[in-house]
């Protein structure tokens, strides 16, 4: 059986909150998702009979471990890193699939009929933030996937969207040069591993992100031809939107409350997307990805980033002991915490520089800590910065570097179809002296209160730890 959104939902049903009260997706779902501490499904969507809406599937390591079929939350990053380094999947064409069960074509096309929420106060409109965006390089025929934001307009067959200057943008530039419309599709509602891998930002010359995700899941992904454009889409998606991006037409887009938690950043005239068809499953489940504040949105991007950097940083000096990498969602993707053990002087600084110049533009602050610091605990990381770092020699600002287009704290140097920003990055070494320094390192070991590791006080420990 293929890995689908439905197979995943079934596997986590013991954690799912099913909501049967009527809820308006356009005005009420945003805050409910944002406040949710786990997966939830709305069964009664006001104005959208027949639809369900689900979100918050992989917001934390528990959900992420479930997506990869793991028992332990600490295995997530090393596991994904290993699979990414060793697995390549493939796609296979099939003639039909569940996503073709219902079709909206021609005059019947109505994007407004999908339960697409408005995410935040101040957004320019209702926004699709959960569509895996599929384009194809017109020269190589290799597809690209990403998850980008698409804004609904008054016209139910037209939308606008924003893309960063990366792979799909490069495809679009090729179509603009030819003055031809670019076929583009959005696939909504797949197994979360496909969503996660669609947000991977590495180089891929002879495969696409969906095939990469298939390899990680250990399957081939089944694709079907679109009805109205020359493109292939996942046969088991819940919904597919097909359309053409005009090479010259522009329309207002934004603002949109982003993973930064700001609405500002990239709003402006954006390409126009003419919808040519919508297909979906019967009794469709709309996979929503609430953009704000700390939701599935952040880890979708940070998870492949963590695994990519885990592999990359281990390669510093050919062999560096990286234990774990965490991009905390509560820092909106711009901070990377690296848990490592340095053998030699200079190893931490080189690792931090590698983190600041990797494939993602997100990493603005890189912090290195030791194996005895819990990188999932902000208090512990701040303790290490406060107590193990001499800022005079262990903190560094690197000026004149390129940063994420949505990081509004960084000056904008170019605004066109997208935004370029150049500014500073910060490296903080909050580690002990390297292992070869022996005694000097040992001075920085944390003392243990007397009685720690004494099993005979276990029961009393529980009691004293209880909040009162
Ligand atoms: Mn790509």
What does this structure look like?
There is one protein chain. The chain is of the alpha+beta class. The protein has two domains: about 5-285, Pnp Oxidase, Chain A, CATH 2.30.110.10; about 315-440, UbiD C-terminal domain-like (3-Layer(aba) Sandwich), CATH 3.40.1670.10. The chain is about 25% helix and about 25% strand. It contains 13 helices and 22 strands. β7 and β8 (about 145) form a beta hairpin. The radius of gyration is 23 Å and the shape is globular. The N and C termini lie far apart (about 50 Å). About 45% of the residues are buried. The model has no long low-confidence stretch (mean pLDDT about 95). Manganese (II) ion binds near residues 144, 204 and 209.
Compact description:
This protein is an alpha+beta fold and 468 residues long. It contains 13 helices and 22 strands.
What small molecules does this complex bind?
manganese (II) ion
Query: Rg from C-alpha positions?
Result: 23 Å
CATH topological fold name of the largest domain: Pnp Oxidase, Chain A
Number of domains: 2
Subunit organisation of the chains: single chain
Q: What's the mean pLDDT score?
A: 95
Number of strands: 22
Uncertain segments of ≥5 residues (pLDDT<50)?
none
CATH superfamily grouping of the largest domain: Electron Transport, Fmn-binding Protein, Chain A
Principal-axes geometry comes out as globular
Helical residues, percent: 10-25%
CATH architecture classification of the largest domain: Roll
The CATH class of the largest domain, by name, is Mainly Beta
Largest sheet: 9 strands, antiparallel
Query: Could you say which structural class the secondary elements and strand pairing correspond to?
Result: alpha+beta
Strand % is: 25-35%
Number of helical segments?
13
Please give the alpha-carbon distance between the first and last residues. 50 Å
């Amino acid at each position: 059986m293929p890995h689908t959104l439905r197979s995943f939902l079934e596997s986590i049903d013991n954690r799912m909150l099913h909501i049967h009260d009527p809820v308006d997706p356009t005005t009420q779902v945003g805050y409910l998702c944002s406040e949710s501490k786990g997966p939830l499904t709305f069964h009664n969507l006001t104005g959208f009979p027949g639809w369900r809406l689900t979100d918050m599937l992989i917001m934390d390591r528990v959900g992420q471990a479930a997506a990869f079929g793991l028992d332990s939350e600490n295995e997530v990053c090393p596991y994904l890193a290993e699979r990414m380094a060793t697995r390549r999947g493939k796609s296979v064409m099939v003639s039909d699939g569940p996503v073709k069960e219902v079709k909206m074509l021609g005059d019947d096309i109505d994007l407004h009929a999908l339960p697409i929420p408005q995410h935040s106060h101040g957004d320019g409109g209702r926004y699709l933030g959960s569509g895996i965006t599929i384009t194809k390089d017109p020269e190589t025929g290799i597809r690209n996937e990403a998850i980008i934001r698409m804004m609904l307009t008054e016209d139910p067959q037209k939308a606008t969207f924003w893309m960063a200057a990366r792979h799909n943008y490069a495809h679009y530039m090729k179509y603009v040069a030819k003055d031809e419309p670019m076929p583009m599709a959005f696939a909504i509602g797949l197994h979360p591993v496909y969503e996660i891998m669609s947000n991977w930002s590495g180089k891929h010359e002879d495969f696409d992100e969906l095939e990469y995700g298939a390899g990680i899941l250990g399957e081939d992904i089944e694709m079907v031809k679109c009805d109205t454009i020359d493109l292939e889409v996942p046969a088991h998606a819940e919904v597919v939107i097909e359309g053409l991006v005009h090479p010259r037409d522009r329309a207002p887009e934004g603002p949109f409350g982003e993973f930064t938690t700001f609405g500002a950043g990239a709003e402006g005239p954006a390409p126009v997307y003419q919808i040519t068809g919508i297909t979906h499953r019967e009794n469709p489940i709309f996979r929503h990805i609430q953009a704000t504040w700390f939701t599935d949105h952040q880890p979708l991007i940070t998870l492949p980033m963590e695994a990519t950097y885990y592999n990359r940083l281990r390669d510093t000096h050919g062999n560096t002991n990286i234990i774990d990498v965490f991009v905390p969602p509560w820092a909106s993707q711009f901070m990377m915490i690296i848990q490592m053990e340095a053998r030699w002087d200079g190893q931490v600084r080189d690792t931090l520089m590698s983190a600041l110049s990797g494939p993602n533009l997100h990493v603005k602050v890189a912090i290195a800590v030791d194996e005895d610091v819990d990188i999932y605990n902000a208090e512990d990381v701040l303790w290490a910065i406060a107590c193990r770092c001499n800022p005079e020699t262990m903190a560094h600002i690197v000026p004149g570097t390129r940063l994420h287009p949505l990081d509004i704290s960084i000056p904008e140097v170019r605004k066109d179809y997208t935004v370029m920003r150049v500014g500073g990055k910060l490296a903080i070494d909050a580690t002990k002296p390297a292992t070869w320094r022996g005694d000097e390192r040992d001075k920085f070991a944390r003392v243990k209160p007397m009685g720690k590791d004494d099993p005979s006080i276990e029961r009393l420990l529980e009691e004293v730890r209880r909040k009162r």
